[in-house]
# Entry
Amino acid sequence: MKVLVFCALVAAAAAWPYDSVNDDAGGASDAQKQHDVNYLLFKVYEDVRDENLHKLGETFDPEADTSHYSDNGEAVHKLVKELKDHRLLQQKHWFSLFNTRQREEALLLYDVLEHSNDWQTFVSNAAYFRNHVNEGEFVYALYAAVVHSSLTKHVVLPPLYEVTPHLFTNSEVIQEAYHAKMTQTPGKFRSHFTGSKKNPEQRVAYFGEDIGLNTHHVTWHLEFPFWWNDKHEGYHLDRKGENFFWVHHQLTVRFDAERLSNHLDPVNELHWEATIEEGFAPHTTYKYGGEFPSRPDNIHFEDVDGIAHIRDLIILENRIRDAIAHGYVTAHDGSTVDINNSHGIDVLGDVIESSTYSPNVEYYGSLHNTAHIVLGRQGDPHGKYDLPPGVLEHFETSTRDPAFFRLHKYMDNIFREHKDSLTPYTKEELEFSGVAIDGVSIDGPLETFFEDFEYSLVNAVDDTPQVADVAISTVVSRLNHKDFSFKIDVNNNNDHEVLATVRIFAWPHNDNNDIPYSFNEGRWRAIELDRFWTKLSPGVNHIVRKSTESAVTVPDVPSFDSLIERTEAALSAGSSEVDIHEFVSAVGVPNRFLIPKGNSEGLEFELVVAVTDGKADAAVEGLHENTVFNHYGYHGVYPDNRPHGYPLDRRVDDERIFHDLSNFHQHTVKIYNH
Ligand SMILES: [Cu+2]
# Structure
């Protein structure tokens, strides 16, 4: 999470925006930085539309003064050498993070930006390399740098679906957008989900193809990149492996809940030796590089040339399952790392993804990342047709393919094997002395609905400054819900104030055959709705928590247009900041998706509230004062000492333990959809 500290900066002078302020903000006001980032990302395939940035792009010499870099210019020398040797990927070509060479190039630029000590150096490099590196690499490097650099703590990144709309919008709509531009006719085009009603998967396409969900997924991977190297970047991403497990576990259980609501069976896990039943036709096109490849129904996995043999993936899976059975992984140097404890899930996440934190990538490989590529290439496994990468080779587009959820069900079941091997919590461990939940109710309806959402496609089409923009946008249907509040009455029988953690979950009451889930099966399917800290005074406490406050969700990011408008208004008013702080982190689940889609009779869920000992749980101070806490987007130490999903993360052999706890509450609720 980016800490919201308001800097009292003086607005920079107009002519040269950076050098009038020199402080730890890096020599520019937040509003100025926001302005620069807006324009760097506006129409990335064309000349930058800001005079100052244009001048920097033409005249800046990145190597001229290396005293402005925290690595003495090491990264910039490397990148400039690649540029001079003509080794960099051409512009107007597709880019995929899963392509090793392309990723290296994007990360070279990321390193230059990350090691820039002041804003002038950061923005000058961004403006200069915008003219020289591949546009996809540029966007990735700039997004990652803005997420991680200390210079950009208050910068809001424009919604990716308006920066690179091709990766979020159907080809049919993109074609209409080009037509509108060519004929200079404003146009508003409806986006339909891919496929026809003959495909049952179509019923849940609103989930995998939701632009907010795609943004959540891609932003999570920017916040916790698998390529992150502590030595290089200077700090550690706390509990990255466990977070990898949790964010995808939540996507998995949320998708199954949406399926239930649409009369579909839960996702089956992917199996290397079984048929991939569902094909996929993405109806999505690259800006440069043609259509995303399709995959027919009922194909068997084939080895992918230059990437992996299916046999080798099975071997990697067996090694990981062996480690789980043994309770330890074997590190690169032959020593063992115990995973038979709360921290084990973190190690296992690093191993399975894999990230640079994996203790032994030589032995355990990179099951998840390789699986993404192998599955993405099944339409052209031997490269016979020279097709560009598949949707699974981009975090922006992955969830569009239902096979993404099969792949993650497979990963999730491996994680479950580990979690199930841990000793269940005892009643004593789960109790919160003197604290009892008196009652839980919901104020307002639990009701979902579909609404239209419009976003701009102006950045999808080519143009020149000589041709005026016409308004081009698309309208998509998307899931939302009415606002509601949780009302939780808690009795604190201690004679003093205590800090409490409130954890709220919901799991489907029945399975797809209308049979109630057992406690143990239900708790594994629990959707995390909220997690927050509060102080409990002695006596009765009435806690009211609004659905909009949920720590696992984020609001819609303002449109690119409105970001630009608000920034320019702030600058012309002489303000040093733009009032957009609540949008700084886009890493959570869209708040619209907080509860799964209901149905007309009311879909039953088990609502669960656990109030646990905040003092024992809290890893940092002052959590009860933090109202903008975001569980996915934190920087530094993860605030909760407990594992993700606590207290439902371990198997429950005897559910009476939970029902005997006075600090635990469960009741059935209904979610409607109208
Ligand atoms: Cu992912």
